[in-house]
TrEMBL record:
Domain Transposase putative helix-turn-helix span(s) in chain numbering: 3-35
Gene Ontology molecular function terms on file: DNA binding; metal ion binding
Name under which the protein is recorded: Transposase
Renumbered residue ranges of the record's region Disordered: 379-398
């Protein structure tokens, strides 16, 4: 999906927000109707019935009639498709859309192709009930039949065309790489490279802490609180942009360089869950310490390093060339002799085999075990080509 940065005028900004509000209301009304439907009322109303109800509502309410019927009907189509995916078992249950968090709408049809290129840097897109809105030409405009307009929490508008890029072809070198994901080192390759996902700088983290303290002292629903929340959202958006850029560059580099990419078969959603409370049997109503503060710090580290996003983009760019490996004991097993022991891991970064004396980086040792594919004890039965050539880190971690 190709995304571009939009630059609407203040009047267009207000009109776009109104379109988002109407699309959100239509979606939530359809979700409420679908959630409260019971079997005794007959079949659940589909898109055709809900579109008829939307026409009657537009005839009765002027604020709804003032909006774009194309945007509102498309929200109903998107909801019907989400319900279909839910019953097919491929997607989660449709949820409520919240103001300030899920701001966006989609345009499908002939209007989606109304894009005019102004010059080398700028272009315009026609948005119903808004007019021609300028956006920055950061890449080639794809040939798409629909686009989606979104607004993030930092107040930035984006235009995304629904066009799936072709997968990256394999180089044909026969090389296999193992990727070990961590918190201190975002991704360690079996080739010896250590890649670190960039985040907020020390100065930015200091400012974020200062803004969070100011937010705690602000009165609710005040203008100052709104300005502080916007400043915090900009810092978080900056971190997300850097992480996304790093993931895109690393995933593209790995897909172009290796024929087979092996990663740990981790379930990030389960790893980042909150720890369950431990009731105290001796004191009714009290709870025992469950390490929630340490677990929350670990969860932030996992999410900040983009564990799930990296594997997701690898599978999309190199379909069929990404394998999940059982991560059990990969960090405790020597990649040279296969000896497995907990004392082999001297520290977070140092690995020293108690049997053969092999010493090296712990994350790289785990990545070599992951590149072996199956159980570490069967490495000799599964020959793989693991390149030990070290390439400059700035090519992928910039």
């Amino acid at each position: 999906m190709s995304r571009f940065r939009m630059c609407p005028t203040p009047a267009q900004h207000a009109a776009l927000l109104e379109q988002c509000r109407q699309a959100r209301i239509v979606w939530n009304l359809a979700l409420e109707q679908w959630s409260m439907w019971t079997p005794d009322k007959g079949p659940t109303p589909g898109y055709a019935e809900q579109a008829r109800q939307l026409t009657e509502a537009r005839r009765e309410f002027g604020w709804l009639r003032a909006g774009s019927q194309t945007v509102q009907q498309q929200a109903l189509r998107d909801f019907a498709q989400a319900v279909k995916y839910f019953f097919a078992g491929t997607h989660r249950r449709p949820t409520w859309r919240k103001a300030g968090k899920h701001e966006g709408f989609r345009i499908v049809g002939p209007q989606a192709s109304r894009v005019i290129k102004l010059n080398r840097k700028w272009a315009e897109v026609l948005v119903p009930k808004v007019g021609w809105v300028r956006f920055r030409l950061s890449r080639r405009i794809p040939d798409a039949k629909s686009y989606r307009i979104t607004c993030d929490r930092a107040g930035r508008w984006h235009l995304a065309f629904a066009a799936i890029p072709p997968p990256i072809p394999a180089p044909g070198s026969g090389e296999v790489v193992g990727v070990d994901r961590g918190v201190s080192v975002s991704a360690a390759l079996s080739t010896g490279e250590l890649l670190i996902c960039p985040g907020l700088a020390d100065r930015e983290q200091k400012r974020l802490k200062h803004l969070q303290r100011r937010l705690a002292r602000c009165d609710r629903n005040s203008n100052r609180r709104r300005r502080v929340k916007a400043a915090i959202a900009k810092l978080h958006a900056r971190a997300v942009d850097r992480r996304t850029d790093w993931v895109e560059k690393v995933s593209t580099h790995l897909a172009r360089r290796f024929d087979l990419i092996r990663v740990e078969g981790l379930r990030v959603a389960q790893l980042t869950r909150r720890p369950k409370p431990k009731p105290d049997a001796d004191r009714p109503g009290a709870y025992l310490p469950n390490g929630r503060r340490a677990k929350s710090g670990l969860n932030r580290g996992i999410l900040a390093n983009g564990w799930g996003l990296l594997v997701q983009r690898l599978r999309q760019k190199a379909p069929g060339r990404v394998e999940g490996v059982d991560p059990a004991y990969t960090s405790q097993t020597c990649s040279v002799c296969g000896h497995r022991a907990a004392e082999n891991r001297e520290s977070q970064a140092v690995f020293r085999c108690a049997a053969c004396g092999h010493r090296g980086n712990a994350d790289v040792n785990a990545a070599v075990n992951i590149a072996a594919g199956r159980a570490v004890s069967a490495r000799r039965e599964t020959p793989v080509r693991v390149s030990l050539k070290r390439e400059p880190q700035h090519a992928t971690s910039a």
